[in-house]
Design brief:
alpha+beta, six-stranded mixed β-sheet, two-stranded antiparallel ribbon
Length: 409
């Protein structure tokens, strides 16, 4: 012991007391700390310590009602699991505290790998319990009326309950139509390929109740047959002509797929069907195309990992609209005045219509008013833009006489 009465190596202060270690961060779990202990420490930090700091600022509450601390030690906590199942009534402060502690403990015990990356989802029970309980405790602190878990779910999840009710009605109609399909399958001896949907209908809401259908709010409509000229309905491969050296993947997505073809969140694969090789170019569920969009977005189309050529197609899919189509890319230098967008999209049905048919004899004009048909020699151009496919010597295109045709001598 030294001359001044302090032990050698002791603290410099005169009373000989060791300095207390700093408290751990209130919202960070310590090594070896259980989920239950951490949940209680978070509760005390948020609903007791933080509120007390606000109460110490007395000037804030001279003209306003001061907040109230929720002291965990004074609460008689009920069963959290039973409380969480009651969605239609507002929980008490004690019930909210019990649910909050239980949800934090579950997350840090059973879902520890998700801590730091877990995002709110109204259909995630742990996340919903946490949000509902924490919101009610904060409401109790600041004298705001408490809400039920159901009401909080609607607010946090941006749910309009009238729409949810409408969805339930529509789902019921879908089930009724499914019964018709099942009856058809049964009548076909269980052969699904022979099932008929002719009896199926879809419903539309009559928003303007007037005329002969003024008493019919829901109208039953026949299903429309697939449109033979639709590139989505036919499932055939359409053609996109553009300058592949200057058009980038991002330009293709923004100008053609989204703006021209009206896809919402497209996912695009570049596939060589002959070599069975596929490269993901764009991920529609992620903003900007995801990692693939960052990797390929600014690349010209002629410099992609799968080289363009026969058998190489773009497979475009939008799960938000149940749309899917195939597109073959063709390097073409288009006239800028005729095609200011820089591309020309030729639907599969249009290509089939423009393909040269088998040679046919001319129909002579008849007195019965029937339409007269004749051959249009290669090099003739229809006002509609039809061109002989396959280049020089590819054959003829048959056009109707009652279409406008320019004859080139």
């Amino acid at each position: 012991e030294g001359a001044d009465g302090e032990a050698d190596g002791g603290p410099p202060d005169g009373d000989g007391a060791a300095a207390a270690p700093p408290p751990p961060p209130p919202l960070k779990q310590q090594e070896g700390e259980s989920g239950a202990d951490f949940a209680r420490r978070v509760f005390s930090a948020v609903f007791e310590d933080d509120v007390q700091r606000l109460l110490n600022m007395e000037v804030l509450w001279e003209k306003r009602r001061p907040p109230v601390k929720v002291e965990l030690a004074k609460l008689a906590l009920p069963d959290a699991a039973a409380t969480a199942r009651e969605e239609q009534r507002a929980w008490s402060v004690e019930e909210s505290a019990a649910v909050l502690l239980a949800s934090v403990e579950r997350i840090f015990t059973q879902r520890a790998s998700e801590v730091g990356s877990l995002a709110f989802d109204k259909d995630d029970d742990d996340a919903m319990d946490f949000v509902a309980a924490a919101a009610n405790l904060r409401c109790a602190t600041f004298h705001i009326p408490l809400q039920s878990r159901w009401e909080i779910k609607g607010i946090a999840g941006r749910i309009i309950h009238a729409i949810a009710t409408t969805n339930a009605v529509i789902a019921g109609f879908i089930v009724l139509e499914a019964f018709k399909v099942l009856r058809s399958v049964q009548a076909a001896g269980g052969d699904l390929s022979k099932a008929s949907i002719d009896a199926c209908r879809y419903c539309v809401c009559n928003r303007h109740l007037s005329g002969p259908k003024e008493n019919q709010l829901l109208l039953r409509m026949r299903l429309e047959a697939p449109e033979p000229k639709c590139y989505v309905c036919t499932g055939s491969t359409s053609t996109l002509e553009l300058d592949t050296a200057s058009f980038t993947v991002r330009s293709l997505v923004e100008q053609v797929v989204i703006k021209f073809l009206s896809f919402n969140k497209p996912t695009i694969d570049l596939t060589n069907e002959l070599a069975d090789k596929t490269v993901l170019l764009w991920e529609g569920e992620d903003e900007g195309g995801g990692e693939e969009g960052e990797l390929h977005g600014d690349k010209p189309l002629d410099s992609l990992p799968v080289k363009l050529g026969p058998g190489v197609v773009l497979e475009v899919e939008d799960t938000t609209q149940a749309l899917k189509c195939k597109i073959a890319l063709t390097h073409t230098l288009l006239d800028k005045e005729e095609h200011p967008s820089g591309f020309r999209f030729i639907a599969a049905a249009d290509e089939a219509a423009a393909a040269p048919p088998a040679p046919a004899e001319e129909d002579s004009p008849g007195g019965d008013g029937s339409r007269k048909r004749r051959k249009v020699a290669e090099g003739d151009a229809a006002v509609a833009g039809a061109e002989p496919s396959g280049g020089a010597g590819s054959g003829v295109v048959v056009a109707d006489d009652d279409d406008d045709v320019i004859m080139l001598e």
